[in-house]
Amino acid sequence: MKRVTRMLPALVALVAATACAAESVPAPRAQAIGVPTIQAAAIAAPAKKVKLDIADITPMGEKTEKVGVGFPIIVTFDRDVKDKAAVEGLLDVESEKPVDGAWRWVSQRKVIYRTKTFWKPYQKVLFTARLSELPGNTAAKDVSRRFAVGSQNISVVDTRKHQMKVYRNGKLAKKIPISAGRGGLVKNGVDVYLTTSGTHLTMGKKAVETMTSSWLGVTDPKDPRYYKEEIPWAVRISDSGEYVHQSAGYYQYLGRSNQSHGCVRATPAGAKWFYTIAQRGDVVKIKGTKRKLQWNNGWSYWQLNWTQWQKGSALKR
Known about the structure:
Distance between the termini: 4 Å
Number of helices: 3
Strand order of the largest sheet: 15-20-10-11-12-19-18-17-16
CATH topology of the largest domain: L,D-transpeptidase catalytic domain-like
CATH superfamily of the largest domain: L,D-transpeptidase catalytic domain-like
Order of helices and strands: EEEEHEEEEEEEEEEEEEEEHEH
Helix content: under 10%
């Protein structure tokens, strides 16, 4: 059965790493949902135990952040889910501007919601988990979170023309000269110096990110391959260490050739501007390289077509 987001009332983030890998992989901010305390009556029987609860929901709610039009809803439970179909049937997504969507289980504890097409911008989306309706789980509290979708930011990176075009709400907002991965370092059959081609989503950002050569196993400063750099305006787009960030010098290559270790290097002004507008869940489409982005590399769920995505649901369709 196809799950469809519904109209609300009026108020209504593996594979081989790249050399751009950060010193530490930033995880999406987690907001744990505590197990409710059951108050016993004066002569009460032992309190019922909660069999299943939610440990984390990503992204954050409407009061904390605005999200991009590609954003997924990632739900992590506090233990393995035995009856995935029963639990999935209790997860609801309602949007002001309806669009088809479906859940996909990626582990025994984690399920991800993605829409068939991108969300419409400037709306609210409500997620609700009715866990109290799960048999034997009546002690659980139902959980909900409302998300705020911001502007439609879709960027297209052409690694052959060495340019990134950023479209906001359907209009070209800026052209930024870039330098992508140069290639030339093969590990386990993968050229990890190539930027991955495909539909990425922005997963987070840092004004300054520390990037090192430790992913190569190079930690000795005397090694000629060693590096440790503080990189400004870094917007993460995969789990394998790819970012859109300010080029650390080498400005002569921007707009002319690919010289990076896998990231998308941009001009100082362009990188800062992109960092400023970036929302988690914004779309970054990269084309022109022979290295394909894997669907489970970060939030790259749009690499699966709609039929493939739906096959990850526990519900019969």
